[in-house]
Design goal:
This protein is of the alpha+beta class. It has two helices and nine strands, in the order βαββββαββββ.
Length: about 130
């Protein structure tokens, strides 16, 4: 469904360190910068990117927005969360764990990145 997702970043080096850590915990390669100062993470299923805002204003998080990354199991979600906290992220929502919903049991871990964007690692429990 999606070709890419891009979020704004105020400090590209801090944001790259954060995303290199959390995405590295999921087995993805470090991001690469283009000639415009944007950082891209390429996968077989799509692209995630961080960028300084084009309009020159400070990046701000989307209130109500969450970017979700698929975790292969709860251990990977926990490693993702720990890597994020150790690299400038802030834990938010409830502690990582199982949540029951109309969608079934989900293992969720939430963080705010260095620019305030909310990201989540999600594993669907079977």
């Amino acid at each position: 469904m999606f070709s890419h997702i891009m979020v704004g970043a105020n400090d590209m080096q801090a944001s790259k360190a954060f995303y290199d850590a959390i995405l590295g915990a999921m087995g993805y390669d470090a991001g690469v910068f283009d000639d415009r100062g944007r950082c891209f993470y390429f996968t077989d299923s799509g692209i995630f990117a961080i960028t300084p805002p084009i309009d020159g204003k400070p990046a701000s998080h989307g209130n109500g927005a969450t970017i979700g990354f698929a975790a292969k199991d709860p251990a990977q979600a926990d490693a993702w969360h720990a890597a994020g906290v150790a690299n400038g992220g802030v834990s938010c929502e409830d502690a990582p764990g199982v949540r029951e919903s109309g969608l079934g049991k989900l293992y969720l871990a939430y963080l705010r990145d260095p620019s305030g964007n909310k990201v989540c690692a999600l594993h669907r429990m079977v």
